[in-house]
Amino acid sequence: MTTPMPDDRTRRIMLWVVAVGFFMQTLDSTIVNTALPSMARSLGESPLRMQSVVIAYSLTMAVIIPASGWLADRFGTRTIFQTAIALFVLGSLLCAYAGTLPFLVAARVVQGVGGAMLLPVGRLSVLRTFPRDQYLQALSFVAIPGMIGPLIGPTLGGWLTQALSWHWIFLINVPVGILGALATVRYMPNARQSGIGRFDVAGYLLLAVAMLALSFSLDGLAELGFQHATVLMLLIASMAALTAYVLHAGRRRQPLFTLRLFRIHSFSVGLLGNLFARIGNGSMPFLIPLTLQISLGHSPFDAGLMMLPVTAAGMASKRLATHLIEQHGYRRVLVANTFAVGVVMAAFALITPQRPLWMVIPLLALFGMVNSIQFTAMNTVTLKDLSGTSASGGNSMLSMVQMLSMSLAVTSAGALLTTFEQGFGNGPSGVLPAFHATFICMGLITCASAWIFMQLSPHEARAVVHRTERAEG
Description:
Blueprint: H1 8-30, H2 36-43, H3 51-75, H4 77-96, H5 101-129, H6 135-163, H7 168-171, H8 173-187, H9 201-220, H10 228-251, H11 265-281, H12 284-295, H13 300-305, H14 308-316, H15 318-347, H16 357-383, H17 389-424, H18 428-448, H19 450-453
């Protein structure tokens, strides 16, 4: 590193700067969901065709995350963190002034580029600034906003949309971002890593092509209106690019992600389980607010309030997840809980306008509880056996897969909604049955992913859940 260690006061303020950046990023992952119907009316679009607004953000983050660590090493943590805030604020402004859906999607891409670098670069800055014996305390402090953002995001988004307009869910980022950028200049050291190797451009491009082609192929028959042949070619291109990356990484000395990570059995199972399980349960933050507003007639603010039990129950069950894993081990907990998550998701097909609210709230809380247990168990089993040089690469790969699965989840849910809407009839009477069928299908996908976790060893150590878990899921 080329910068001296800052004093205690500077480090404390820097922690707040990183925490605020983390809060902005996690808030924007959820605040949009309750505003989608209002956005659709303003832009003259169907509410069931708005998934690209969510997909653009999460998919962009998945593509950019693998490069963020190298960029921070090469140009310095302060430089890249400032750039991330600037892009995030610029993207937010562009989103607020979007007049068409394509423009809004493009603006979300800009916002996603900035958001992708806020968390990993901020966390890297903390690790390089604080003494080793203060790592855990510092990282725990930074993680708190990651829990608060999703907690207040849907409600805040609903309130801003109803009281002002949907544009304000983006405009609130501007003053916070400007203050954060100014504080970054003064209080964040520009730590760099000496002697870093060349960036694996070829490997990065292959992975990016694989992720983009897969996402566009899944969305091709729904929102984008691609022909079947185009969708097939995109799927083939995605598989070809992924295969090419495996061959490339096998012969390169320092690939973007080394294939040696997959020799660790718990990492391989955990990563694949994260990908496929999240394709199911990751669709729920998108589906639930839409169902509440479009089919049940709730206002944006009421829909946001009804998401509170999901997050509150999730936060309350974090310790329960630890206890279950210690008592029963990862394999039993993940197999049983993955199936439970899928069943609870399918149970949302029972929601109708005639169903009283007191029956809906417990279902939302139950989903939040089992989903939180799922995230905690999946994340820790993936990272628990990594050490040394493998820890950084494994953590980055997990972050990339998490964001990719969020994109694929919304893409899949949107495609199913479109298909079922056409099947049940393009009218008000066909919308609720389309949502019900989509909940059932996404629940079945989640149940099926329990088979992946059955590949864990029956004698998997009943290890304590340690600090590798990400509170935000």
